[in-house]
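Issue: ligand-bound run for adenosine-5'-triphosphate - logging full I/O for the record.

Environment: standard queue, default settings, no custom constraints.

Inputs:
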Amino acid sequence: MPVLNVHGATVSYGGRAVVRGADLAVAPGEAVALMGANGSGKSTLIKAVAGLVPLAGGTIELFGTPRKRFRDWKRVGYVPQRTGAASGVPSTAAEVVSQGRLAHRLIGLPARRADREAVARSLAEVGLADHAHCSVDTLSGGQQQRVLIARALATDPDLLIMDEPTVGVDAETQAALAEVVAARIDAGCAVLLVTHELGPLTDRLDRAVVLADGRVVHDGAPPRPVGEHADPGHEHVHPHPSPHPLPKLDGAAPRISFGNAGGGTDADTWDGR
Amino acid sequence: MNLEQVFGYFEYEFMQRALISALVVGLCAPAVGVFLVQKRLALIGDGLGHIALTGVAIGFLTGAAPLWTTLAVTVAASVVMELLRSHSKTSGDVALAMMFYGGIAGGVYLTGIASDKGVANLQQYLFGSLLTAGWSEVWTIVVGGAVVAALMLVLRPWLTAICADEQYARVSGLPVGALNLLLLVTTAVTVSVSMRAVGLLLVSALLVIPVVTVQQFTRSFKATMFAAMGAGLLIAGTGVLASAAKDVPPGSTIVLIGVAVFVATALLAAVVGRLRRTRRGHLPPEGEPLEVELPAKA
Ligand SMILES: Nc1ncnc2c1ncn2[C@@H]1O[C@H](COP(=O)(O)OP(=O)(O)OP(=O)(O)O)[C@@H](O)[C@H]1O
Ligand SMILES: [Mg+2]
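Outputs:
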C-alpha cells in the first residue's frame, strides 16, 4: 500500500487549473523528487496533498485513507516553501521546532519527555543545537530554513514532504541534511522532495516526477548529474585542495532543463503568502 | 502629596474595588494580546471595542445589564469575523474596518433611540468608570479574568502554532478553525469584561502595550507572555495609584502610563542594542564552516 497515492489530481485557482490530472504514488521508504520549472504546479500539488488547497478533481489517499477522512497527521512531516520561521512575537528555535510535536500531544496536556527529546534531537540533526534558545528572527535565512526542517523531523513522520527545503542552505549543511534524511529513509520513512537542483539530497532518490504546466511529463529514473559530480569517486570533503585555479562553489550541481512541454508559463511566482 | 496619602485612599472600598479590577485586567489582557500580536491582529481588540458600543446601547434599550448584552454582541461579532475570514475573500483589515464603522454607528444609533438614558451614560463605558463599579462587577472581572488567563496558559503551544503559521498548524492536524474562534471569543470576553476598568476605547491598549513593550527584550514566546502579564499588572496598578493621587479617570491614566513606558523602553532598547551590538544573543557566524573552497596557495 503506497503511503501517498495521488490519482488524476486537478487543482485550480480562481478557475485556472494549475495542476491537471496529476498522478503520483510514493511507496513506503521510497524517496521521490518532484521537479519542474517555476510555476509548473509543484507547490500546489504538495499543498493539495497536505490539505491546504481543495481538489477540483481526482483523489488523494494518504496511508490508504482518502485525504478528507485522514486524521493521522502525526505521520506526515511538512516543510513549506520559503516562509521563514519568524513571526510577530519572538520565539526561540526550540519553540518553533516543538510545534512539530503538537500532532503527538493531546490538546491541553503538557509536553512529555519524548517530545522534548525529539525537539532537541532534530535541532541537533540540522546542526542548530547551540541555537536552540536563540530567537528565530535573529537567525539567518538559511538557519531559519533549517529550523523549519527540524520542525518537520521532530514529528517523526512516515512521510516527509519538503518543498525546496535547502534553498539558501550552504553546501556543507546540505550534505549533513542529506545524511539525516538518508537515515530517515533507511528507517522506513518515505520522502517527497520538491527540488530544482541535484545536490547531495538527491543522491538517494529512487524516482523523479517532473511536472510541466501542471501535468506529469516524466515519472521514472531521476535525472543524473553530469560532469565532475557524476563521478562515483567524487567525494564531498571540505576543504579539499581544488584542482581549479579559481574558487568553485560546491553543490553548484549542473542544472537540468525540463523543456516546458505545454509551452507553460515561466513566470517566477511566489506562493500567496 | 505623599505616598501615605495615596495609600490612605485604599481605606475606601471603591478604591479597593478599582485596584482589584485594574490589576486583574492588567494581568489577563496581555495573556490574550500576545497571541493577537503574533497573529498580527493587534487592532482586533479595538474593533471588538467598537462593536461593544452597540452591545452597551442594546443594554440601555432593553434594560438588560450592559455587561451581558456586550458579551453577546462581541462574541457574535467575533464568530462572524472568523467565518468571513475563513470562508470568503474578505481580508482581516477589511473585516476590521467594517467592525469599526458598524460598531460605532450601531452604538450611536441605538443610544439615540434610548436617548432618555443619556449619552453621559455611554461615556462611562467608552472611557471606563472603575470607581463606580460594585463588588458584583469586580467578582465578574476576577472570575472572567481567571478563566481567560487559565485558558491562554494551558493552550499556549497550540495557540502559538495557529498564530505563527496557520498552514503548518493545519498540516499538523490541529483544529485550526476552533482554536481561531476560541481566541477571538476570548478576546471578546476580555473586552466586554474589562470595559468597566479601562473603557471600551482603551481596552485594546492593555491587550497590546505590555506585549510590544516587553518583546523588545525577550527571546522566547513563553518569556514574552509571562513578562507581558507582569508588565500589564504593574502598569495597571501604577495607573490606579496615579489616578487616585491626581483625581483623574483611571482608564486614561493607565493607558498614558503604558504608552510612556513603551516609548521609554523603546529608547532604552535602542541604546542597549547599540551597546550589545558586539555581544549577540547567539553564536557568531565564525562557528560555521567556510562556504567556498579557497584557492590552494601556490
Ligand atoms: N494563491 C494563489 N492564487 C492564485 N494563483 C496561484 C496561487 N499560488 C500559485 N498560483 C499559480 O499557480 C501556478 C503554480 O504555482 P506553484 O506555486 O505550484 O508553482 P511551483 O511549481 O511550486 O513553482 P516554484 O518552482 O516557483 O516554487 C503558478 O502559475 C501560480 O501563478
Ligand atoms: Mg513552489
